[in-house]
Design goal:
Largest sheet: 8 strands, mixed
Radius of gyration: 24 Å
Helix content: 10-25%
CATH topology of the largest domain: Rossmann fold
Strand content: 25-35%
CATH architecture of the largest domain: 3-Layer(aba) Sandwich
Number of domains: 3
Shape: globular
Length: 646
């Protein structure tokens, strides 16, 4: 018999990061296809790569250049290509650079007076300049003083603000006439998925709100050559496809019954693309997985039969769709799909893992009963990955469970092969990735179920999922762990302190322990996020004036926090500062609860450096081994994480 958790596996932390490159964004420029990829073995540097029509693949951005922006802290849209010229934001100084064919990077903007004080994102290049979002940070560093604008940047580096006033702006798009401008805007306390407006300004300066506003969100405005403006809007509950022809009314074109768009955490997302012949390529979620389809002008929708379950960065290139794609047995690739034949060509393959697919746990979409807690939604969803190891035929007892909680919390599980998940399933764990009520891909009503209820509904659902699997005899109820990062880390801490007795171990990766401190300290983009998720926050009222924040903060429930916990934190995290992790660790130490704490200097929100990714993954496994009493595979040489027990 082999004890679950101890199964020998080739899916080690070394394999997880070996030649790993996280594919980020795809851009088409004429016959060339470009993409960016983050490489852990280069310190998480974002590299630009070009594939020429003859198949030649070239790294365009040599070290130490790093195409990554800190606008909204989550970035996106840090680079673009227009007629062979590359524009990008360099991470170290947040200045803009341009690369012309045959030349190296040349500075477009100078270094700001305040280090990283002026940042650019959502870059949209043209032959004679650049549209961009500019985020200006004052010397005070206060989130309330940060200014976001749309700007025009000439090739000489001169910047002109063209949209100022809203708290946030994104998606600048010039119409075919070269003078009409469309963009998205929203104001505090809303997030873009709550109430983003689509605004159009004509050459005579008249501005019109085309769609969006309270209770309605717009995503990805895109101009067609005939001057029709296409966009995604959740007016029908799900993000559906709309258009507004010149001089016409806004018209619903396609509602597939599930979300086409995803929440705009980062700039530059693209979930549909306009083809030259009038057809539209689009991706949408259903039952926990994406479909890729093409819509004809007559309204016929044809889905492609492809072995992938996630499609992002959709771009049109003649008669084909170019995108990033991944699936249950495939890490993300750059894919080109012929819209007529449905034939697919992989332009940038995933790394060769050297593994038989039999090692990969097949995902199961699970819908389970949710508690009656006033949302009116009686079910929640998860993707379950059962223990899978072709070399193990007999096991000792039921498998341990790891419940994984996505970040956001406005987000969802992306069903792309994750070696981090397979790291656990190949060792004998069952993994359940929960899309609790409040997650995306299931429509606005499901998403809004978390409004005012974060720290209630998400806890109910992760507990209900774990108990559902235990009651079904699929997992060991005495060995159930919960782990998550960022907002998922908050759910970990809250579940252990406010729903004690269900999980017997936990792992928080840069999780939130004190909601009031988060509201007071976090960056501008999320500084009013909790107004909707929790309640409006009064910074002058103190703890007594914000009782719901105190009530739902794990740091105020350490009297019931008796579950062993591992905490992992980046030392330069501006989204969830290290003070959050240190507060919960101090409380664990004072109570004598077994715990481990790893602080990674130089890391920000999420770990990008290879050594730190390995240390966190192996550290978490060794923590479970010490708590639950199973042996680590000797061949891997994993150094047990130090556990403080009193």
């Amino acid at each position: 018999m082999s004890s679950p958790g101890s199964w020998p596996t080739p899916i080690t932390s070394e394999l997880v990061i070996r030649t790993a490159a996280r594919l980020e964004e795809v851009v088409v420029d004429g016959a060339d296809v470009w993409w960016s990829e983050s490489r852990p073995d280069e310190g998480g540097r974002s590299v630009l790569v070009r594939r020429s029509p003859d198949g030649t693949v070239t790294d365009v951005l040599p070290a130490p250049w790093n195409a990554r922006t800190r606008v909204h802290e989550y970035g996106g849209g840090a680079w673009t290509v227009a007629e062979g010229a590359v524009w990008f934001t360099n991470f170290s100084d947040q200045s803009l650079y341009r690369i012309d064919q045959g030349a190296g990077p040349a500075a477009v903007t100078g270094e700001p007076a305040v280090p990283s004080g002026v940042r650019h994102a959502d870059l949209r290049g043209t032959a004679d300049g650049l549209l961009a979002v500019r985020e200006t940070h004052p010397a005070s560093g206060a989130a309330a003083d940060v200014v976001n604008e749309l700007v025009w940047i000439g090739t000489d580096g001169e910047e002109v603000a063209i949209v100022s006033g809203p708290d946030f702006v994104s998606d600048p798009a010039l119409a075919p006439d070269g003078a009409t401008l469309a963009w998205l805007q929203w104001n505090h306390p809303h997030m873009p998925w709550d109430a983003a407006q689509l605004v159009v300004r004509t050459p005579d300066g008249i501005e019109t709100v085309v769609a969006g506003g309270p209770g309605e969100s717009v995503v990805q405005p895109t101009w067609a050559p005939d001057g029709t403006l296409w966009f995604l809007c959740d007016r029908t509950d799900v993000w559906s496809l709309y258009r507004k022809a010149p001089g016409g009314d806004t018209e619903l074109v396609l509602d597939v019954g599930s979300d086409i768009a995803r929440p705009q955490w980062q700039f530059g997302a693209s979930r549909f693309a306009l083809l030259d012949d009038g057809r539209i390529a689009l991706a949408y979620g259903r039952d926990g997985a994406d479909r890729l389809a093409v819509l004809s002008p007559g309204g016929d929708l044809r889905e492609f039969d492809l072995p992938y379950a996630s499609f992002t960065s959709l771009r049109a290139q003649g008669g084909r769709i170019v995108c990033a794609a991944g699936g249950p047995a495939a890490e993300r690739v750059v894919l080109a799909v012929d819209v007529d034949s449905g034939d697919a060509e992989v332009l940038r393959p995933a790394r060769d893992l050297g593994l038989d697919p039999a090692w990969f746990s097949p995902p199961e979409f699970l819908t389970f009963p949710a508690p009656d807690d006033g949302t009116g939604i009686e079910v929640a969803h998860a993707v379950v990955y059962p223990p899978t190891n072709p070399d193990v035929t007999a096991t000792d007892g039921l498998p341990p469970l790891v419940v994984m909680v996505h970040g956001g919390p406005t987000s969802s599980h992306d069903r792309v092969l994750s070696l981090e998940i397979q790291y656990f399933t190949s060792r004998g764990f069952c993994v359940a990735h929960v899309d609790y009520r409040g997650s995306t891909d299931y429509g606005r009503r499901y998403r809004d179920a978390l409004q005012g209820r974060w720290g209630v509904v998400d806890l109910d659902d992760v507990v209900a999922c774990a108990q559902h699997l235990a009651d079904a005899g699929r997992v060991d109820p005495a060995r159930m762990a919960i782990r998550g990062g960022s907002a998922g880390g908050y759910t970990v801490l809250a579940a252990l302190s406010m729903r004690p007795g269900v999980f017997t171990a936990g792992a928080s990766h840069y999780g939130v322990a004190d909601l009031a401190a988060l509201a007071a300290e976090t960056h501008k983009f999320e500084s009013r996020y909790l107004d909707g998720l929790i309640a409006p926050y009064d910074p002058d009222a103190g703890p007594s004036g914000n009782p719901v924040y105190a009530e739902r903060s794990p740091i105020n429930h350490v009297d019931t926090l008796d579950t062993p916990l591992a905490v992992f934190q980046g030392g330069e995290d501006a989204v969830v500062p290290p003070s959050q992790a240190e507060a919960i660790v101090s409380a664990l130490r004072a109570k004598g609860v077994p715990h481990a704490y790893l602080l990674f200097p130089g890391e920000q929100h999420g770990f990008r450096q290879a050594a730190n990714i390995r240390a966190a993954l192996d550290g978490e496994l060794s923590f479970y081994a010490q708590v639950w009493g199973f042996d680590l595979p000797a061949a891997e040489g994993i150094e047990p994480i130090p556990v403080v027990r009193g």
